[in-house]
Amino acid sequence: MCYCKTIEEKGFKLSTSKWKVLTMSTMFLGVQLCEGKFKPNEKKIASLKAMSVPRDKDQLISFLGLLKYDNHWTLKEEKMESLKNLVI
Question: Which SUPFAM superfamilies match (predicted)?
Answer without folding.
Answer: DNA/RNA polymerases
